[in-house]
Design a protein that fits this description.
By secondary structure, the chain is of the alpha/beta class. Helix content is 41%, strand content 15%.
């Protein structure tokens, strides 16, 4: 199937306008909005919305339980979704794909199983200053429980993880490196491959928070070499309430179950139970079937558009926003990484981020403001919060320009 993005050339307007027609909120909601909060959640194309409605209207049945046609059909659709996601991220097997509620639950799953199994008194878990709270708090909890230490890699004003800083902090008691692929604040694209190689050379496994990467960059977990990779469906055109944890097969097989319940159990006796093999071992209870099927539709939509093309186009929007921000007096753009994706954040001198966001909202522009669930990074930057512009491939250069003009007007009101 051809895609409007296949033909993208400046000035983009006609091609992106055709693509935007696939998104009801952007095309026929009747509410004009410049939606630039895509790092928080993306809008949904009709194909995803239709997949959810179709399942509940015509295909609804429990999976892996009912021995009847409708149940078999639902189970086949659910596992087809798992296979589709597996191919999307280059996993070696669909058995390495666990469906969760999102990135947060995926990381908590690893913390409460792999972490509790591997981390003991005096051990260390290594994280970076640019992590989202979802990749900090679970490790704080495990370290506190197990008598371990959480250690930090500084990122500096550039907001980058440098190989030398990582190497200096890896020690004989380091049991895990947990780091973000793309920062949800600065859009920094970390050099994941080289960082993983450094950690593995010391025998340290690596978990990657891919929430901001999976929908913006081509991701191949086999090529990355990571041990775990977590991401959320709703940040890549899919529905809320569905996420993915990739884990290397041998690690998943050795990890204890996290929760007990139907679907995960092979046998239950009075005094003990036996669990099924992964991924079922980690999917106790009724899974998010409709959401998984809709996530597969989102994956197919992204692949039809072309992940490399999406990334290249979004880079032009990020660059346009960064240049526009730097041209406005009193604006400070945070971070100066070698590569950005997904987001760029700033502060406006003398104006609280929430006030900037509310005033832009008055002009129909939706941006995020606050600490962005990244308070350690805010402390490193020396600010209470920031304003974030996070475009997606259905945004236009004109929307970026309109936002810059509106921001300049906001600045003028506080002079």
């Amino acid at each position: 199937m051809d895609s409007p993005l296949n033909k993208l050339k400046p000035p983009y307007e006609e091609d992106v306008r055709r693509l935007r027609a696939d998104f009801p909120l952007l095309s026929d909601s009747g509410v004009p909005v410049v939606y630039l909060d895509n790092a928080a959640t993306t809008q949904k194309p009709r194909a995803v919305i239709d997949a959810l409605a179709r399942f509940y209207a015509l295909q609804n049945a429990p999976v892996h339980r009912g021995i009847y046609r409708l149940g078999d059909q639902a189970s086949a659709l659910f596992e087809r979704a798992r296979n589709r996601v597996s191919r999307f991220i280059g996993a070696g097997s669909s058995r390495e794909i666990i469906f969760t509620r999102g990135t947060t639950e995926s990381i908590n799953l690893v913390a409460q199983t792999f972490g509790r199994m591997r981390i003991g008194p005096g051990d260390e878990v290594l994280v970076t200053e640019m992590e989202h709270h979802a990749n900090i708090v679970p490790w704080q909890m495990v370290c506190r429980e197990r008598g371990a230490v959480l250690r930090w890699i500084p990122v500096g004003r550039e907001c980058e993880v440098r190989a030398g800083e990582l190497a200096r902090r890896l020690g004989p008691r380091t049991r895990l490196l947990a780091l973000v692929h793309v920062s949800n604040v600065t859009g920094t694209v970390n050099p994941i491959c080289s960082l993983i190689e450094i950690a593995h050379a010391k025998g340290v496994p690596v978990l990657v928070d891919g929430a901001q990467a999976a929908g913006h960059l081509p991701v191949d977990v086999a090529a990355l070499g990571c041990d775990f990779y977590a991401f959320s469906g709703h940040k890549m055109l899919g529905p809320m309430g569905i996420g993915v944890l990739y884990g290397r097969g041998e690690l998943l097989r050795d990890m204890p179950p996290w929760q007990g319940g139907g679907g995960a159990i092979l046998h239950v006796g009075r005094d003990s139970s036996a669990f099924r093999e992964p991924p079922a071992k980690f999917e106790a209870g009724t899974p998010p079937v409709a959401e998984a099927i809709a996530l597969a539709e989102a994956v197919e939509y992204i692949e039809r558009a072309g992940r490399a093309r999406i990334s290249a186009y979004e880079q032009t929007l990020i660059h346009r926003a960064e240049c526009g921000l730097k041209a406005i007096p009193g604006v400070r753009v945070h971070g100066d990484p070698a590569e950005r994706a997904a987001a760029v954040s700033f502060s406006l001198e003398g104006v609280h981020p929430h006030d900037v966001s509310q005033m832009l909202d008055g002009e129909g522009i939706a941006v995020r403001a606050g600490n962005l669930c990244a308070q350690p990074l805010m402390a490193a930057l020396g600010v209470p919060g920031v304003v974030r512009i996070a475009p997606a491939f259905y945004n236009t250069p004109e929307e970026i320009d309109f936002t810059m003009e509106a921001l300049d007007r906001v600045r003028g009101m506080f002079r």
